[in-house]
Amino acid sequence: QVQLVESGGGLVQPGGSLRLSCVASGFTFGSYDMNWYRQAPGKERELVATITITGGTTNLADSVKGRFTISRDNAKNTIYLQMNSLKPEDTATYYCNAKTSTRLPWLPSRDYWGQGTQVTVSS
């Protein structure tokens, strides 16, 4: 059974920090690029951060560059999103996503989602 379980969300003041975690199970974690998305009320889901299968390549949305960092620990089947200098506009539900790596085209294409963790930035 595939599972992506996010944790680490909560209420934080502007300028504060949070670290989100996503623990994966039920699939070959090392074959998947991993992503963090977020969705604020009334807005479309947006891609925040991406990390490739070895962790060698990461990409961040312009809105979070310089403040957020994505990382992964393949030994623990876990990815992280370190969020610093948080702003009220970062308030959203954050979702962990796994997609079959484009570097492994012989594998069936799969796309898995977690249930999300709420991040609220407010004073």
Which labels suit this protein?
123 residues, four-stranded antiparallel beta sheet, 0% helix, globular
Q: How does the SSE layout of this entry go?
A:
Blueprint: E1 3-7, E2 10-12, E3 18-25, E4 32-39, E5 46-51, E6 58-60, E7 68-73, E8 78-83, E9 92-100, E10 111-113, E11 117-121
Parallel strand pairs: 2-11
Antiparallel strand pairs: 1-3, 3-8, 4-5, 4-9, 5-6, 7-8, 9-10, 9-11
Number of strands: 11
Q: Which of globular, elongated, flat, extended, rod-shaped describes the shape?
A: globular
The ordered string of helix (H) and strand (E) elements is EEEEEEEEEEE
Largest sheet: 7 strands, mixed
Q: Strand fraction band?
A: over 45%
Radius of gyration: 14 Å
Task: Give the N-to-C terminal Cα separation.
Answer: 40 Å
- What's the helical proportion of residues? under 10%
Mean pLDDT: 96
Q: Which class of secondary structure composition applies to the elements? A: mainly beta
- Helix count equals 0
Give the oligomer, counting copies of the same chain as homo and different chains as hetero.
Answer: single chain
Spans of at least 5 consecutive residues whose pLDDT stays below 50 are none
Description:
The radius of gyration is 14 Å and the shape is globular. The strands form two sheets. Strands 2, 4, 5, 6, 9, 10 and 11 form a seven-stranded mixed beta sheet that branches. It is mainly beta and 123 residues long. It is built from no helices and eleven strands.
